[in-house]
Specification:
The protein has helices at residues 12-27, 33-43, 51-80, 86-92, 98-104, 124-147. By secondary structure, it is mainly alpha-helical. The relative contact order is 0.15. The model has no long low-confidence stretch (mean pLDDT 88).
Length: 148
């Protein structure tokens, strides 16, 4: 993955396991987005007594969302050519910006602390809701593009 080296909570061995889960999902068309999410949550558990586990899940889910986005983009480019853009992926998957989830979840984190994806670790609870939504939407779009 291109993100290696920029992470604080997901080490290389865990990134390899995440890569394996995503690769299996990409290859096996019988796996559903719900099964993907279940496997990820099992691999990235959150322990109440250890706040670092929540941040580990945020980084892990971020990796998954990035890889799925790139896979969907590549599949769309193969199917539709130059008319398939990153903006179209965002529209087709109905991805929402982080600030949308900040307001809808009632986050108490100040808005200036959660302006970009780099700020996900400042508000892990909201980030997890956004990332789960993104992963589910991108996985469904990927299945659609694979079946076309």
């Amino acid at each position: 993955m291109a993100v290696r080296g920029k992470l604080y909570y997901v080490m290389d061995d865990l990134q390899d396991k995440i890569d394996q889960i995503i690769s299996e999902f990409e290859r096996d068309a019988t796996l559903t987005p719900e099964q993907l999410m279940e496997a990820l949550k099992k691999l990235l558990p959150i322990e109440k007594a250890d706040f670092a586990t929540a941040k580990r899940r945020v980084e892990g889910m971020y990796l998954v969302a990035e890889r799925l986005f790139n896979t969907v983009y590549d599949l769309g480019r193969f199917r539709y050519g130059d008319e398939w853009t990153r903006g179209r992926v965002t529209r087709e998957a109905e991805l929402r910006p982080f600030h949308h989830f900040h307001w809808t979840t009632g986050s108490r984190e100040p808005q200036r602390n959660v302006l970009t994806r780099d700020d996900f670790l400042n508000d892990p609870a909201t980030a997890l809701i956004k990332l789960e939504s993104d992963i589910s939407s991108l996985a469904q779009l990927m299945r659609h593009l694979q079946s076309v």
